[in-house]
Write a structure and sequence with these properties.
With 267 residues, this protein is α+β, with helices and mostly antiparallel strands. The protein contains eight helices and eight strands; from the N terminus they run αααββαβββαααβββα. It has two domains: 63 residues, Orthogonal Bundle (Arc Repressor Mutant, subunit A); 176 residues, Beta-Lactamase, CATH 3.30.450.40. The protein has a six-stranded antiparallel sheet, sandwiched between helices. It has a two-stranded antiparallel sheet with strand order 1-2. β6 and β7 form a beta hairpin. α1 crosses α3, α2 packs across α3 and α5 packs across α7.
Length: 267
């Protein structure tokens, strides 16, 4: 059953102070698109905002890492923008690079193809190609899933650095989304060990009953796992061993080729 969810829109005036502050802060940041460094006085002159407001916002941006100060006390953009810019570019690149491979996988296997990235302790679906079959598993772009559930989210967990992986596992409060969701952290660790050994993962009824998925990791030039690629469909179509073997071969080859385009060296 589909139900529309009401979205709360702010009443007139509601949240106005927050919006104004954000807009004024953005006005300050935009000054640095054309200027490498600016003093507090120069920022005040260019924005024509009150001195106290500019000082307060500049210092807040400094504390958050959006701005830095040099030895003379002049402001400049913080390194966080370099990190964010690199991350955004990488994520945009991965979608454009992966899409042709995803379309080919859908054509060759008939199953839905999904691309996920990590966001904190969750996986986010950032691209999809729907299955050609009449009976299919529907996934929405923007959907979130726990890193411990489902082949594709778990592929991200499996190939991250061990210390970070263990930190996340310890923090999980495992929820049973479906009959196949891992029930304990020990079971999860065993699944991860198997995934790392195989270089691919398979799941049955972990996020939704009667659905299955096979996933493979995508690596960047530094050897970090940055995405997961999966084939997903009704569980009944993932029972034939020959079909599953063929899907694994096609999927892992696609993930390897996408990784290579991102500068990864064969593992």
């Amino acid at each position: 059953m589909h139900m529309d969810t009401a979205v709360h829109l702010p009443e007139q005036g509601e949240g106005r102070k927050v919006n104004k502050t954000v807009l004024k802060s953005m006005e300050i940041i935009k000054l640095f698109f054309t200027e490498e460094k600016l003093t507090l006085l120069q920022i005040i002159e260019r924005t024509e905002l009150p001195k106290t407001s500019v000082y307060r916002m500049a210092e807040s941006l400094l504390e958050l890492g959006f701005l830095e100060k040099d030895k003379e006390g002049a402001y400049r953009l913080g390194l966080v923008f370099l990190e964010l810019g690199s991350l955004v570019a990488e994520r945009l690149d991965i979608r454009s690079i992966a899409l042709p491979y995803m379309q080919r996988l859908r054509k060759e296997t008939g199953e839905a193809v999904n691309l996920v990235i990590r966001d904190g302790d969750e996986a986010v679906y950032i691209e999809k190609v729907d299955a050609q079959e009449r009976v299919r598993v529907y996934t929405q772009i923007g959907r979130r899933a726990p890193l411990y559930g489902g082949a594709c989210p778990r592929i991200l967990l499996s190939f991250m650095e061990e210390a970070e992986r263990e930190r996340l596992i310890e923090s999980f409060q495992i929820t049973q989304y479906a009959k196949g969701t891992p029930k304990t952290k020990e079971e999860l660790r065993q699944l991860i060990e198997r995934t790392r050994k195989n270089s691919w993962s398979i799941s049955h009824s972990e996020l939704e009953d009667h659905s299955s998925a096979i996933a493979a990791p995508i690596f960047n030039h530094k050897g970090d796992v940055i995405a997961g690629l999966s084939l997903a469909g009704p569980e009944v179509r993932f029972q034939d061993k020959a079909h599953v073997k063929e899907m694994i071969e096609k999927l892992t080859e696609a993930s390897r080729q996408i990784s290579a385009e991102l500068g990864a060296v064969d593992r």
